[in-house]
Each structure stands twice: as C-alpha cells, then as structure tokens.
Design goal:
InterPro entries: FN3_dom (IPR003961), FN3_sf (IPR036116), Ig-like_fold (IPR013783), Interferon/interleukin_rcp_dom (IPR015373), Type-II_Cytokine-TF_Rcpt (IPR050650). This is INLR1 protein. One of its GO terms (molecular function) is cytokine receptor activity. The chain is mainly β. It has one helix and 16 strands. The strands form four sheets. Strands 3, 4, 6, 7 and 8 form a five-stranded antiparallel beta sheet that branches. Strands 11, 12, 14, 15 and 16 form a five-stranded antiparallel beta sheet that branches. Strand 11 and strand 12 (about 150-155) form a beta hairpin. It is elongated, with a radius of gyration of 23 Å.
Length: about 200
C-alpha cells in the first residue's frame, strides 16, 4: 500500500509581474512524482478551474498569470501529487489578488549614447497578458559620487527619455524603478545603476 503524501509549503507568490504557485515535494515522494494545479476565484467559490499547462508536471511551480480570467478578483490555488495510479490530497494556498498584490521587478535600462544626446528606455519582463496595464517607471540621473539626482517621474512604459549631454562632463549614472498605479501605488526596487562616461576627453 503506497501512501502519497501531499505537497508542502504551498504558496501563491506575486513576483516580477507574475502570479506563481510554488510548493515542495511531500516527504518521501518518489523522484518521478508529478503535480496537477487548479485555481478558484473568490467570486465563484468551489468552482476549481483547470490549468492545462500545469497538469501532470514534474516541476514544483506553476505560472498562473495568463490563466487568470480576472486580475481584479482574489484567487487561490491548490496542488496535488500524482504517481502511477496514486494521488495525494489537494493542498490549498492562501488568497491573492494580482491587481493589488502584484510585486514588480526593476526595469532593465537601455542606454543609446549619441554625440550630444543620450536616449534612455526601459524594458519590463512582462507576461503578455498584462502588457495593456498602465505600467510606468521613474528614471533618476546623477553624477557618480553626487547625492543630487535629476528625476524623470511617471514615464509610461514605452516612453524614451532624450537627455542633452552637451553640459554633462564625467561619469553619469542612471537607475529606474517600475510603477503600477493600483490600489496601493506599487513600485519596484530601483535597478542597479548603469554609468557612462560623457564627453570624456582623453
């Protein structure tokens, strides 16, 4: 008689613009155990929706973002272990709501340095299904070693900032954070500074 123990530490994470269910294998799980995930919305309780790409999977996470039928309703997910003809009990996660709980990753800055200008744009690691939300970013520019930062705030995701470099001499740094104007105005950490030498003679 085989008893398949259920997955442990089942957690619904909102991370880097995505909603992901993670778990650990149950104690003593066979190495080739598989997992199946479902989710339910708080406005349709006890109607567990299938997640086709997370049925009988070997990995211990499932990205639910683009399966959610609404981003404005709390959801919770559940997972069970499957092995041969055996199944473990389902284990449920806590509830989360993409719109208010989303965690943002810092944008990646793209710098295009030309003779008298620098063009700065931001790239976001977005799941395709949330590209239409109003993502923004704040851009900071400062001379290396200085505390005095020039701020370009509330830029739309696809905006490019063009900065004249004629008056800038030396090592200048750029950093940005992602913004999402939801119920609590969420923002990411600032990206690692990217620094460039401008009008450097020699």
């Amino acid at each position: 008689h085989v008893q398949l123990l259920p997955p442990q530490n089942v957690t619904l994470l909102s991370k880097d613009f995505a909603m992901i269910l993670t778990w650990d294998p149950g104690e003593g799980s066979p190495p080739d155990v598989k997992y199946t995930v479902r989710y339910e919305r708080q406005d349709r309780l006890n109607k567990w929706m299938k997640v086709p790409h997370c049925k009988n999977i070997p990995r211990t996470f499932c990205n639910l973002t683009c399966d959610l039928s609404s981003f404005f309703v709390q959801v919770r997910a559940r997972v069970k272990a499957v092995w041969g003809g055996f199944q473990s009990p389902w284990v449920q996660s806590q509830c989360k709501d993409y719109y208010s709980d989303v965690e943002l990753a810092p944008p990646v800055l793209i710098l295009n340095v030309q003779e008298n200008f620098i063009h700065v744009s931001a790239s976001f690691p977005l799941p395709t299904c949330v590209e239409n939300f109003t993502w923004k970013y704040d851009l900071y520019l400062w001379e290396a070693g200085s505390e005095d930062k020039k701020k370009y705030e509330g830029l739309f995701r696809k905006d490019t900032v063009t900065i004249s470099t004629i008056a800038l001499r030396g090592n200048y740094c750029f950093s940005a954070r992602a913004l999402f104007e939801n119920t609590n105005s969420t923002h990411s950490e600032f990206s690692q500074p990217m620094c460039v030498l401008l009008n450097h003679k020699g």
